[in-house]
Amino acid sequence: MKALVFEKQGLENLKLKEVERPRVGPLDVLVKVERAGVNPIDHRAVTAMNVTPMPHIPGAEFGGVVEEIGERVGGLKVNDRVVIYNRVFDGTCDFCVSGREMICRTGGIIGVVTNGGFAEYAVVPSKNVFKIPEEISWEAAASIPVAALTAYHAMKEADPRPDECVVVFGASGNTGMFAVQFAKETGAKVVAVSRKEWVKDFGADYVVNVNEVTEKVKTLTDGKMADVVLNSLGSELWEKSLALLGAGGRYVTFGALTGGDVKLSIYWLYGQQIRLQGTTGGSRKELSEVIGASKNLKPRIWKIFNLDEGRNALESLSSSNRDGRILIKAS
Question: Of all residues in the chain, what percent carry a pLDDT higher than 70?
């Protein structure tokens, strides 16, 4: 089969190669990959992270068709349309038992601690395989396991209520476009921080640039400021986004694209009873919930690359012209 493989770190080392098709164990499923989402985690896997095995196939987010099932697998059949829960987990630690597989004590991410989905075929444990409805396009399906699930879990943790004010930074990004949609479903007033006007079509009540957001929030809340701020962009906008929170506000983050080191006034934190919440991915239960709601979700796709264009796909993550999601067509 064909796969994107690197033997040492660096985008220049990511090559399309012919490799042996992975073998299926008793509890495994072989998936013929249709589409794979391209995310910052994939760029980091190729350029900056310790990955296994090596040589390595990246790709943390993908969907496809069941090609083969292990002899002890139930509930799935050949030709089922599926997406892959991208967390490796043991199922026995305290986090797994409490339904938080995404922070399993011995776990990791598919495409980082195992080979991933930037290939024609991928083998995954059957417990990671979730069927999807026929009416869901592959473009939408390939956005469920990372982009949509990450945003969904973050919004559940923030728990916005009707008529509260939610501010989403990076609202036109991979996760941001879904965070806007999930926030809107709660009945909250959603302020999307973006230069892209199309975000309003995804449920944002207001689309503003970063220089306008403070005044807009003050106007909407009579100066009380935001109830929830989601900033997945990192330290560059830390002070600006944190200053938007009013008393009792919740600040949620799951990314550090612009840096990860920040300063914080502890006096302000406890004086205003602010909640800082880090989130990562989501649980299998939450993935099922996202799939159940997937007919109402819409991604904006910018470009779809072929497997042999994998390096270009990853480089395009930082393109100033990017205007939506990047996908890889594997078959």
Answer: 100
